[in-house]
């Protein structure tokens, strides 16, 4: 297992390098002069040259690339153009909120999606199955901002169960949890839809496999057959969709944070866009890229846990 | 039970471990249920091997699955007859009772060793599982017994392979594991559905010899499904030939090979490869009618050289030749 972990971590290096290079190139090929974007088109040539120096844009492109890479390797994301604070500090300050939201959504998606999918497959064409199918269709068709506003209207404005204005950074843990419920549901429901679908189709396939017949021939109770024998085999596709979706969640968290007015990477991105804070934006892209690569590594490591064929190959 | 025991040939023998009496199994095609197994009867005593032979699609597996109570839900059902395993009427029993019989007093080995084991569970646990379920053994004790069972079926280095997974085993080894798994709780009845068809020729003989050996040692009643008449000749005591869901001929192996009497049995024997008996049977001219197009009387009539008017009516199983237990279902071959 340890060798598998190390192998996977080494494999992540080229991926990260490629992603970082893409960010570097992307920021530089976007049309328009960044100094005009930042200072406006009325800025003097001198001011623009000064800014270019400050940004390191006057150096040859290769030198810029070396600077960029070595900075990131030392954990330095540069300074914000608008506030002049270290970007790493700003990101670290709000990152826990985004992680908290993403993980809560992951829990919602898995805890609701997996049993619903299993139930649907067990009672194929029954009530649970129809419910699961309609629900997951609705789930994938709703944009996050629409469902977010609906949730707010129903549970916060009408029923008043949860706060409308988020107090995600409240010191009181109960208050903090209450503020997390609606955003996590909003982000998680979309995932419930995907997880339910994958679980349902995986279970339908697994339940018709020969090894399930063997398990039944052993005289095991049906519940044991379903969970121990069929479900274990569906863990691989479930981990795949959860892992893939973790990347989508990180992106969707942005929308949800904005709708629910929560601190987090999402709000920071909006700030960066409004301020035309080009270096902050680049830093945020790097952080998101790291997060997604990390999510993929975790997914692959989980494969090793749920599928014996992966680690013994 | 009368029909099932008509082919008694050992006087004062132990009572049969498995009795199947007038079993009819139906398959649903669209909205209609068709008889895929039509009123078949047989009994298997401890230490005895009954071979069930016939072309693909004649209802062998359905018979086995009916006995196990494992017909595909919504597609197959037992619509008549009785199945008695070790004195327990499975057809009258509720599902919990059947669950407690399966894997404990009746075990089954399937045709496909490559897919019949769970890929994500360790071999040792898969063998041990029914001991934990039916015997209430602790996991440790059950694994210990699993190791003994794997040694019994001659899996090399069994102790160190309890934690291995199916993908680390060859087809032949997996089928040995399946045998160990089916034998875990010392069942009275073992059903083996073409246990060697998917294996290499050399491995086939080994696995069969192993099964025969274990069967004699444990005193099992074995229902062996095969379409290899060479296998029948070498390991079975009695044979039952099925065609289109009917038993068309049955009897002691010696009597059967001495005087195969049903035109279908003759065709099977004629199509049998001579020397090694390992290659699959040559197809017999014509095709098995599909379930929806079965003739009402003798189902072999559409392919039979001896066909005449009476074949529109199903002939009864009647004794033929010298052995009173040798029965055939054919108007043309009934002793006058
Ligand atoms: N799950 C199923 N769905 C539909 N039809 C089935 C099903 N299982 C069996 N049948 C039909 O029932 C008949 C008997 O099938 P069965 O599996 O018992 O044949 P078999 O004698 O075991 O053949 P083989 O030698 O190929 O294993 C066939 O006509 C088959 O098409
Ligand atoms: Mg079959």
From TrEMBL, chain A:
Q: What is its main location?
A: membrane
Question: Which key words tag this protein in UniProt?
Answer: Cell membrane, Membrane, Transmembrane, Transmembrane helix, Transport
Query: So where does this one cross the membrane?
Result: 9-30, 101-122, 134-157, 177-195, 234-260, 280-306
What GO terms fall under cellular component here?
A: plasma membrane
Q: Show where the ABC transmembrane type-1 domain sits.
A: 95-303
Listed InterPro entries: BPD_transp_1_N, MetI-like, MetI-like_sf
Matching Pfam families = BPD_transp_1 (PF00528), BPD_transp_1_N (PF19300)
Location of this chain's protein in the cell: Cell membrane
Cell membrane among keywords: yes
One GO-annotated biological process of the protein: transmembrane transport
Topology versus the membrane: Multi-pass membrane protein
Keyword field contains Cell membrane: yes
Q: Which family does it belong to?
A: Belongs to the binding-protein-dependent transport system permease family.
Under what name is this protein listed? Glutathione ABC transporter permease
Which species does this protein come from? Prosthecodimorpha hirschii
From TrEMBL, chain B:
Cellular component terms per the entry's GO annotation: plasma membrane
Q: Which is a GO BP term held by this UniProt record?
A: transmembrane transport
Q: ABC transporter domain: from which residue to which, for each copy?
A: 18-269
Q: Which UniProt keywords apply?
A: ATP-binding, Cell membrane, Membrane, Nucleotide-binding, Transport
Subcellular locations according to the entry? Cell inner membrane
Q: What GO MF terms are annotated?
A: ATP binding; ATP hydrolysis activity
User: How does this chain sit within the bilayer?
Assistant: Peripheral membrane protein
Q: What domain of life does the UniProt record list for this protein's source?
A: Bacteria
User: Can you say what this protein is called?
Assistant: ABC transporter domain-containing protein
What lineage does UniProt assign to this protein's organism?
Bacteria, Pseudomonadati, Pseudomonadota, Alphaproteobacteria, Hyphomicrobiales
């Amino acid at each position: 297992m340890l060798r598998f972990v190390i192998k996977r971590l080494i494999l992540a290096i080229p991926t990260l390098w490629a992603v970082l290079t893409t960010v570097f190139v992307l920021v530089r090929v976007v049309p328009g002069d960044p100094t005009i974007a930042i200072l406006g088109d009325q800025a003097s040539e001198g001011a623009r040259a000064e800014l270019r120096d400050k940004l390191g844009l006057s150096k040859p492109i290769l030198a810029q690339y070396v600077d960029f890479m070595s900075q990131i390797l030392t954990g330095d994301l540069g300074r914000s153009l608008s506030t002049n604070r270290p970007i790493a500090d700003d990101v670290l300050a709000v990152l826990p909120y985004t992680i908290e939201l993403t993980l809560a959504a992951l829990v919602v998606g898995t805890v609701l999606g997996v049993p619903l999918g299993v139930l649907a497959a067990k009672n194929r064409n029954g009530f649970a199955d129809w419910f699961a199918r309609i629900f997951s269709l609705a789930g994938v068709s709703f944009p996050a901002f629409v469902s977010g506003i609906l949730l707010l209207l129903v549970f916060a404005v009408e029923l008043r169960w949860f706060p409308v204005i988020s107090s995600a950074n409240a010191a009181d843990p109960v208050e903090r949890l209450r503020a997390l419920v609606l955003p996590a549901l909003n982000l998680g429901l979309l995932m419930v839809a995907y997880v339910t679908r994958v679980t349902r189709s995986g279970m339908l396939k697994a339940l018709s496999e020969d090894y399930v017949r063997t398990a039944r021939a052993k005289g095991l109770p049906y519940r044991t057959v379903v969970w121990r024998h069929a479900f274990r085999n569906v863990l691989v596709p479930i981990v795949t969709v959860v892992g893939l979706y973790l990347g989508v969640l990180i992106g969707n968290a942005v929308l949800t944070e904005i709708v629910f007015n929560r601190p987090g990477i999402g709000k920071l991105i909006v700030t960066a866009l409004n301020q035309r804070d080009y270096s902050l934006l680049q830093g945020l892209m790097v952080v998101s890229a790291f997060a997604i690569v990390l999510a993929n590594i975790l997914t692959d490591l989980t494969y090793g846990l749920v599928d014996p064929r992966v680690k013994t190959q | 039970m009368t029909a099932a025991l008509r082919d008694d040939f050992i006087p004062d023998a132990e009572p049969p471990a498995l009795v199947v009496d007038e079993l009819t199994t139906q398959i649903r095609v669209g909205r209609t249920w068709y008889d895929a197994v039509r009123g078949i009867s047989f009994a298997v005593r401890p230490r005895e091997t009954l071979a069930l032979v016939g072309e693909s699609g004649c209802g062998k597996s359905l018979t086995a699955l009916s006995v196990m109570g494992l017909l595909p839900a919504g597609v197959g059902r037992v619509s008549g007859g009785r199945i008695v395993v070790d004195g327990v009427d499975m057809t009258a029993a509720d599902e919990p009772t059947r669950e407690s019989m399966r894997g404990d007093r009746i075990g089954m080995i399937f045709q496909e060793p490559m897919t019949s084991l769970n890929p994500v569970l360790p071999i040792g646990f898969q063998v041990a599982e029914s001991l934990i379920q039916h015997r209430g053994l602790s996991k440790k004790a059950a694994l210990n017994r699993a190791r003994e069972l794997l040694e019994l079926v001659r899996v090399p280095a069994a102790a160190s392979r309890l934690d291995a997974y199916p993908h680390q085993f060859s087809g032949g080894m997996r089928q040995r594991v399946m045998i160990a798994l089916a034998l875990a709780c010392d069942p009275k009845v073992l059903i083996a559905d073409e246990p060697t068809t998917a294996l290499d020729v050399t491995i086939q003989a080994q696995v069969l010899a192993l099964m025969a050996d274990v069967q004699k040692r444990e005193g099992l009643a074995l229902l062996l499904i095969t379409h290899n008449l060479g296998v029948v000749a070498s390991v079975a005591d009695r044979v039952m030939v099925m065609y289109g869901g009917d038993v068309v001929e049955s009897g002691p192996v010696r009597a059967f090979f001495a005087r195969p009497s049903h035109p279908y049995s003759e065709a099977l024997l004629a199509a049998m490869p001579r020397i090694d008996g390992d290659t699959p049977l040559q197809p017999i001219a014509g095709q098995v009618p599909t379930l929806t197009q079965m003739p009402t009387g003798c189902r072999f009539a559409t392919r039979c050289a001896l066909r005449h008017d009476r074949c529109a009516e199903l002939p009864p199983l009647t004794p033929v030749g010298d052995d009173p237990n040798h029965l055939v279902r054919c108007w043309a071959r009934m002793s006058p």
